[in-house]
Amino acid sequence: MLGPVILAASRSDRVRRLVSAAPVTRQVVDRFIPGETVDEILPIIRELTGDGLELTMDVVGEDITTPEQAAAARDAYLELIDRLGPLELGGRAEMSVKLSMFGQALPGGHGLALANVRPVVEAAAAIGTTVTLDAEDHTTLDSMFAIHEELRKDHPQTGCVIQAYLFRTEEDARRLAAAGSRVRLVKGAYKEPAEVAHQKKHEIDKAYVRILRTLMEGEGYPMIGSHDPRLISIAQELARTAGRKLDEYEFQMLYGIRGDEHLRLAAEGHRMRVYTAYGTDWYGYFMRRLAEKPANLGFFLRSVVSHD
User: Fold this and answer.
1) For residues 193 and 196, what is the distance between their CA atoms, to the nearest angstrom?
2) Which residues neighbour 284 within 8 Å (Cβ) at sequence distance 6 or greater?
3) Which residues are catalytic, by number?
């Protein structure tokens, strides 16, 4: 499987330098990351919302090694929220955050991440929107869920992400499928050992459907994070079976992947939210996009060959 190889490469400084130096890289990166600054991303937000889509915004960057970098990540989100306020988009443009960016892996990281993410959640609420905590590798999840629970005491709309390939997720989904919760279900994009995660695609797909059924039959708000046409069709059927209205769940897909499907689902009356990343520290995000979908890797390699 290429995915684990690419994920391993995402942690290599040597590969980072090679990929970053390739002349074609910027062209391919732009497919997934449409800007580096708030000024560059605001027109994209206006365009997508004008097309009837919703967004969740991610400021890319995960290699945080100092508390000062974690504070800078917090401030980047606060700047984005400050600029979004006058657009009066409400919940149509929310935030997605990785707690690793807020210092979770540093000494005292749990408390540091909570202290940094709290003002972001508060600022988002002040302009009528919210924050979803992204899931990272399995060793970080107990901390993420504890921070999620703490934030929901004052801001119950705070969402979280669960990953279908992890064995623990079916139990997590049962706990989270409660009234008022917002849960995004994804397949998972980190290299995880066989002791904690399904390794085969068909096993992950089956787990995804089981978990999604739990969320649809629960009292929370499911967010279906998938580009898989079969899973999207199954999600629609599970929603109908559960008696859910179109505004009682949503689909989420990445910017740059299946854009026509984004518009089709929105035109059918579904809530369709586009996960839109921006920023200068794009490498880790870009490599995970390649790992998730072989077609993305093929696109990149063909571009490199054509420019050789």
Assistant:
1) 6
2) 10, 60, 61, 62, 63
3) 134, 184
Burial class from Cβ neighbours inside 10 Å (0-12, 13-18, 19+) for residue 6 reads buried
The total number of residues written for the chain in this structure = 308
Rounded Cα distance, 181 and 159, in Å: 7
Per-residue pLDDT of the chain (308 residues; tens, 9 = 90+): 555 555 555 555 565 566 655 665 666 677 788 888 999 999 999 999 999 999 999 998 767 999 999 999 999 999 999 999 999 988 899 999 999 999 999 999 999 999 999 999 999 999 999 999 999 999 999 999 999 999 999 999 999 999 999 999 999 999 999 999 999 999 998 889 999 999 999 999 999 999 999 999 999 999 999 999 999 999 999 999 999 999 999 999 999 889 999 999 999 999 999 999 998 776 766 766 666 655 555 545 554 444 43
Residue 155 phi/psi, 5° resolution?
-135, 80
**Segment holding 238, helix H or strand E:** helix 229-241
Phi, psi for 183 (deg, rounded to 5): -130, 120
Cα separation, 258 vs 253, whole angstroms: 8
Spell out the SS3 assignment of 152-195: HCCCCCCEEEEECCECCHHHHHHHHCCCCCEEEEECCCCCCCCC
Tokens of 221: 């708000």
Residue whose structure tokens are 């989100």: 77
